[in-house]
Design a protein that fits this description.
The protein has helices at residues 8-49, 70-120, 196-215, 230-236, 270-279, 293-307, 311-321, 331-341, 375-379, 387-392, 409-418, 455-468, 523-535, 569-580, 603-606; strands at 144-151, 160-169, 174-180, 185-188, 192-195, 224-229, 240-244, 248-251, 258-261, 264-268, 325-327, 349-353, 355-361, 365-371, 396-402, 429-436, 446-449, 472-475, 485-489, 510-516, 542-549, 559-562, 584-587, 597-601. By secondary structure, it is α/β, with parallel strands linked by helices. The longest helix has 51 residues, at 70-120. The protein is elongated and about 155 Å long.
């Protein structure tokens, strides 16, 4: 018995040799087949030429062929056919190989690009003109005065919708800001009286800076300016989140619709933010100027979004929004400004609104005449008072409403309260609105406190009661108001008597008609009581024939129209004008009521 001890490797070698032999035999068979085909073809050609005879073999078949003659040409043709077949075969193989290489290269480009880029080119370079040289410190080391203005997308001829003057005090790390109506009338250098918002369109932010340096009366130089395409910046930042304490309904100035802002967090896009700034810019008659502080809140929110979470985010965002900014600051300066402003504590971020009286101008609508008397005290650079002093010297927001209809009493009280200051010179009261109550039937004066939890506000209410020498102090805890205190003057309030002119003497009794051209209920009857109570004290010299509504309630200016030329009638009209506190005197022949004088009451009377 015998055993075969050859291992598996010998079996594998034997299989490889068998495969090789089979491949070699197959290749040899292919060559033999081609040779037989050539011989058959040659035989066929010779038979066609008659070169074959009946004998199967001839002597020349066993002789060496002479390849120098025609047979050489015949043999060359057969060789050529073989070479052509082999060439076509090689061409096919070569084409397949090239196609395979192209496919591999394409796959490498598509799928390998990111790997190659990240592996060898992972540093993204910012072009030199867009780069930022990182300062050693991102904190402002000096005091800065800057004007920040918001506009639409056209920065060359901008439609300005917000103007904020900001002072930064490096010693105390605080900012004080002043929000101004864009339709404030000031003396524009080289232009004359013009709206400050329009000065940017005329001469750019440099002209606005010069205007405010002169017009605000603070003896402060503007160091920098920043004009921003609000909608473009907000959109580039992916929107902003504005946190509010109350709800608002905002006009959408792009299409005439409205949209709501809710208490809490509001996610806003660029066009919405632009409309909010415009809504609180002073162009809406019914919006108190104190609500312009919303503009500063929006700018602060945009700055916080630009700063982001770290230094890298700030740098990237400055580069992203740079094309939507017009400024005399470099990127590095803007970087430090935003970084510093984003870290200002809430109690050191003080915001004021410009005190101004409003009027209507034909072709312009509502415009504002500024009162800049106290600004220098608000923005003077001094050591920040202690926290205890700051709390005890809080300026309280006040609204004064006329509840009896006597002209001028609300504005007179406003002037009196504005004159009240602390020992430091800080104003005790900030009068944010003067107007009429919902009716003129208030018998007792009301002092309504809306922030009674603050002792300083309750103390202010008691001070006001002492000044008025009357009034009932109540609280409005469950109501929402835009001020700390609302004063409604009643019939029990008697302002300090002022020297009044004696009524003029007229011939006979002056007949009069009073027309309500503003719409407030019983307005004409109220004015009748006021005028008759004044002129008819000693004897009857005035008789109101009728009180009624005018042809419409759209009159903005009070008119005192004289129809007769009686003795003393002109002087009598002037005393009516003085008593009303408003109005223009006119003469007319169109005396349809057959009276001496007609008074047409406009909205200027109720808004004083």
């Amino acid at each position: 018995m015998s055993f075969d001890y050859r291992d598996g490797d010998d079996d594998d070698n034997r299989d490889d040799k068998n495969d090789f032999s089979e491949n070699r035999d197959s290749f040899k068979r292919d060559e033999d087949r081609e040779d037989r085909e050539i011989e058959r073809e040659s035989f066929s050609r010779r038979r066609d030429k008659g070169d074959l005879d009946d004998d199967f073999f001839k002597d020349e078949d066993f002789e060496f062929a002479d390849y120098s003659g025609e047979d050489t040409e015949e043999e060359g043709y057969r060789s050529k056919r073989i070479r052509e077949r082999r060439k076509r075969r090689k061409l096919l193989y070569t084409s397949l190989i090239i196609l395979l290489i192209i496919i591999v290269a394409a796959v490498g480009i598509v799928f390998g690009y990111k790997w190659v880029r990240n592996r060898f080119f992972n540093t993204v370079e910012i072009p030199e003109e867009e780069g930022i040289t990182i300062p050693d410190s991102l904190e402002l080391a000096q005091d800065v005065n800057i004007i920040i203005a918001g506009s639409g997308e056209d920065l060359l001829e901008p439609e300005v919708n917000s103007i904020i003057f900001i002072s930064y005090y490096s010693t105390s790390n605080e900012t004080r800001s002043l929000c101004m109506p864009v339709k404030t009338l000031m003396d524009i250098p080289g232009i004359g009286a013009e709206l400050i918002g329009r000065s940017v369109e005329i001469g750019g932010m440099d002209l606005l800076s010069l205007t405010l340096e002169k017009g605000l009366g603070m003896d402060m130089e503007v160091d920098h300016y920043l004009l921003m395409d609000i909608s473009g910046i907000v959109n580039k930042l992916g929107g902003i989140e504005l946190e509010l304490d109350q709800a608002y309904v905002i006009n959408n100035y792009s299409d005439g619709s409205t949209f709501n802002l809710e208490p809490g967090m509001n996610l806003l896009e660029g066009p919405e933010v632009l409309s909010i700034l415009k809504y609180f810019s002073g162009i809406e008659k019914d919006i108190p100027l104190t609500d312009m502080k919303m503009q500063k809140q929006i700018i602060d929110t945009m700055i916080l979004k630009t700063v982001g979470g770290d230094e890298e985010n700030l740098i990237n965002n400055i580069n992203i929004i740079w094309d939507f900014i017009d400024s005399d600051m470099s990127k590095e300066e803007l970087l430090k400004l935003f970084s510093t402003f984003s870290k200002i504590e809430a109690d050191k971020n003080t915001v004021y609104t410009l005190e101004a009286s409003s009027t209507e101008l034909e072709g312009e609508g509502i415009i504002y005449l500024p009162d800049v008397g106290g600004l220098s005290d608000l923005f003077k650079k001094e050591q920040t008072p202690s926290e205890e002093t700051a709390v005890s010297e809080k300026t309280v927001d006040i609204i004064i409403l006329n509840g009896v209809g006597t002209p001028g009493i609300a504005s007179g009280l406003s002037d009196s309260l504005k004159s009240q200051v602390y020992d430091s010179g800080k104003n005790k009261f900030n009068i944010i609105e003067v107007g009429n109550a919902d009716n003129f039937n208030y018998a007792a004066t009301e002092i309504i406190v809306y922030t009674s939890s603050e002792a300083i506000v309750m103390n202010a209410a008691n001070d006001i009661k002492d000044i008025l020498k009357t009034g009932n102090i109540t609280t409005g805890e469950d109501e929402v108001a835009s001020s700390d205190i609302i004063i409604i003057l009643g019939a029990d309030y008697s302002p300090d008597p002022a020297a009044e002119a004696e009524p003029v003497e007229v011939s006979g009794i002056v007949d009069m008609v009073i027309l309500n051209g503003e719409g407030t209920a019983k307005l004409a009857a109220t004015v009748q009581d006021i005028l008759e109570g004044y002129f008819n004290t000693d004897s009857k010299i005035l008789e109101v024939i009728e009180t009624r509504d005018a042809d419409n309630w759209g009159y903005t200016q009070t008119e005192i129209i004289i129809y007769t030329d009686g003795e003393g009638i002109d002087a009598f009209a002037e005393q009516i004008q003085e008593r009303l506190g408003v109005g223009i005197i006119k003469k007319s022949d169109n005396n349809i009521d057959d009276v001496d004088i007609t008074i047409l009451l406009g909205s200027d009377y109720t808004s004083q």
